[in-house]
Structure formats: structure tokens, C-alpha cells
Specification:
The structure is a single chain. The protein has helices at residues 12-23, 41-50, 75-103, 124-144, 162-167, 170-178, 188-199, and strands at residues 3-6, 27-29, 57-60, 106-111, 149-156, 210-213. The chain is 45% helix and 13% strand. The radius of gyration is 17 Å and the shape is globular. α1 (12-23) crosses α7 and α3 packs parallel to α4 (124-144). The protein has one domain: 3-Layer(aba) Sandwich (Rossmann fold), CATH 3.40.50.720. The N and C termini lie far apart (42 Å).
């Protein structure tokens, strides 16, 4: 049985990914914030130091999106976004990939974003972090490929999560849907299915890629 670690698995895409990996037969670790606070590098370090299990699959899903206009951004906003979205993912990958290299097997998926390839106003710190995730994915894929450790990123577009419903009225969601060639938002399960394949033994050669799952939105 493979062991997977999924960050940000309490809701939305992360919860769907964890559920799908469990369905695939994996033992899934989903550390809570009290167990591993991604805003703190020392908390991540403590979690890793106390982790006594070999992790075969890592999904760096947790992320924050602090929307602010460029003139309203301060360094605290930017650094906190980079810590959660990028640096914690780097820290986890750097540590857990060592065991993967020794065992000659590993699957790492970084959850990026549509806003790493196109963008909107107010997304500077978020777009910075997710664009960096894409670059990190490519570089790590090159280094880890000789050890049969495959590293990819998935960049979702608009996804119909509870948070999306909370932040948008039905009319606003319909307006978003009409801006997408497929005329609908993705479900969390659709993103989870893609991640499932990338994490599986069926994926034997795909590495270093950022796969955009946005219903065609970025093609416009």
C-alpha cells in the first residue's frame, strides 16, 4: 500500500484529492493546521522530524489567495502568500523526496493555478507564488527523474467548491460559467481524477509538466 500526504485536505479540491487517493487504495495522511502549520517553516520542520512513515506520494495542495491591488500590497502579504503556497511546498518536497530517491519511487503533484498562466487584477502575490510553483516543478522533475520520482503540477481554473459558492451568488457563478468555453465550472472530483492519475503507477513517463484544467478558459 502506498502512503500519500495531502496538504490542505479539509475542504474543496484537497478533500476530493484525499478521498480519491483513499479510493485508489492509498493510506492518506492529511495533517491539520495544529499538526503542521504551513505559515511556519519551523512547524513544517517539526512535523517532518516526527513523521515516522515513508511517504510515496506528496500532493502540495494547500494555498492562500489574498486579493489586493498592487498599491495596497505590503511585504507581509507577499511573504505570507509565498510561505504557504511555495516555500512550504518546497520544504516538504525537499525532505520527502530523499526517501523517494532511496526507494526509487515517488509521485509529487503541486497544485498550481490558472492564474499562473493568465491573471486578473489583485492577484499579484498569488500569481507570483503559483508561477514559481510551475518553475519549481520543472526543476525538481529534472533532478528526480533518474530516481523514478515524477513531479508534475496541476493548474485548475474555476472550480465549483463551497468557497466559490460562498463568495459568489448564483448569478455570478453563471456569469463565470459563460466565460468558459465548456460553459461550466469544474468539480473538485474532476481535478482529483487528474491528480489521481499523476500519482498512480499508471503514470510512468509524464513529468515536469504543468497541466491546465480550466475548460478551455486560457485558450481565449
Amino acid at each position: 500500500m502506498r502512503t500519500a500526504l495531502v496538504t490542505g485536505a479539509s475542504r474543496g479540491i484537497g478533500a476530493a484529492i484525499a478521498a480519491q487517493l483513499e479510493q485508489d487504495g492509498c493510506r492518506v495522511l492529511t495533517p491539520s493546521r495544529s499538526e503542521m502549520d504551513l505559515t511556519s517553516s519551523s512547524s513544517v520542520e517539526r512535523y517532518l522530524a516526527n513523521l515516522n512513515e515513508a511517504v510515496d506520494i506528496l500532493v502540495n495542495n494547500a494555498g492562500v489567495n489574498q486579493i489586493a491591488a498592487l498599491g495596497e500590497l505590503d511585504l507581509t502579504n507577499v511573504t505570507s502568500t509565498l510561505q504557504v503556497n511555495l516555500l512550504a511546498a518546497f520544504q516538504l518536497t525537499q525532505s520527502l523526496s530523499k526517501g523517494m530517491q532511496k526507494r526509487k519511487y515517488g509521485r509529487i503533484v503541486n497544485i498550481s493555478s490558472l492564474w499562473s498562466v493568465v491573471t486578473r487584477a489583485g492577484r499579484t502575490s498569488y500569481a507570483m507564488s503559483k508561477t514559481a510553483i510551475n518553475g519549481m516543478t520543472r526543476s525538481m522533475a529534472v533532478e528526480l527523474a533518474p530516481f523514478n520520482v515524477l513531479v508534475n503540477a496541476v493548474a485548475p481554473g474555476y472550480v465549483l467548491t463551497d468557497l466559490t459558492r460562498q463568495n459568489n451568488s448564483s448569478e455570478e457563478i453563471e456569469k463565470i460559467a459563460q466565460s468558459i468555453p465548456m460553459k461550466r465550472l469544474a468539480t473538485p472530483e474532476e481535478i482529483a481524477n487528474l491528480v489521481s492519475f499523476l500519482c498512480s503507477e499508471k503514470n510512468t513517463y509524464l513529468t515536469g509538466q504543468t497541466i491546465i484544467a480550466d475548460g478551455g478558459y486560457s485558450c481565449l
